[in-house]
């Protein structure tokens, strides 16, 4: 019997079968959990329905026998769509035991330049999608969250310290982590826990697109564990935080980065610095 047996919940933000959200969802499903999924809305002129299709393709890799409870479009900038997916969840599940928020976006023009050059409209959009959406989702879900339910959002070390190239998204992650703590306080009296998982660099499609290769090489030398993390390790940790095994944990940022965040110096990387 799996530790999610009889548990039901929402997975918001799976893009494909190489995403962190997918790794967490897969572990939950393997442990007996039942999941409803969101997908990015398809454009009206997109006959191939690519956004929904990517998630459907990922779900098929679980085996022909697996069927998600539902798969609904979700634009987190739309309160109407947030309310709509919560209604679907309520109709299907009644109450939900876990909710994964794994959504972030900033315009490439604002990510590729210096942070100081971030556009006003780009900043508003990035903060709306990447940080405010957690507040909006928690507010819409509060009536269907079961006692002892758990909410988890995804962060990164760039929200705590300067990570060149992460730029405006680092500001968004700082706001997301602060929002998480206040959601933990607001939902705590109902028995609901809210946490964040801060993963080190992994080879997701978005990570590869952002050029995590050099970052991963650095982590190998700086992190106490002398290696990078795996996608399955992040999935295990995320599932743990969403389970009742983490029943006494709320308002926390769990780092899954081989200990990189604990370092106060370049560690073993100094061996590669030329000596005078």
Automatic annotation (TrEMBL):
Top-level taxon of the source organism: Bacteria
Keywords: Fatty acid biosynthesis, Fatty acid metabolism, Lipid biosynthesis, Lipid metabolism, NAD, Oxidoreductase
Biological process annotations from GO: fatty acid biosynthetic process
Pathways involved: Lipid metabolism; fatty acid biosynthesis
EC numbers: 1.3.1.9
Gene3D superfamilies tied to this protein: Enoyl acyl carrier protein reductase, NAD(P)-binding Rossmann-like Domain
Active-site residues, as the UniProt record annotates them: 156, 166
Reaction equation(s) it catalyzes: a 2,3-saturated acyl-[ACP] + NAD(+) = a (2E)-enoyl-[ACP] + NADH + H(+)
Binding site for substrate: 106
Pfam families in the cross-refs: adh_short_C2 (PF13561)
Residues bound to NAD(+): 13, 19-20, 75-76, 103, 173, 202-206
Keyword Lipid metabolism among UniProt keywords: yes
CDD domains in the cross-refs: ENR_SDR (cd05372)
Molecular-function GO terms, alphabetical: enoyl-[acyl-carrier-protein] reductase (NADH) activity
InterPro entries named among the record's database cross-references: Enoyl-ACP_Rdtase_NADH, NAD(P)-bd_dom_sf, SDR_fam
Record-stated family: Belongs to the short-chain dehydrogenases/reductases (SDR) family. FabI subfamily.
Protein name: Enoyl-[acyl-carrier-protein] reductase [NADH]
Organism of origin: Mariniblastus fucicola
Lineage per the UniProt record: Bacteria, Pseudomonadati, Planctomycetota, Planctomycetia, Pirellulales
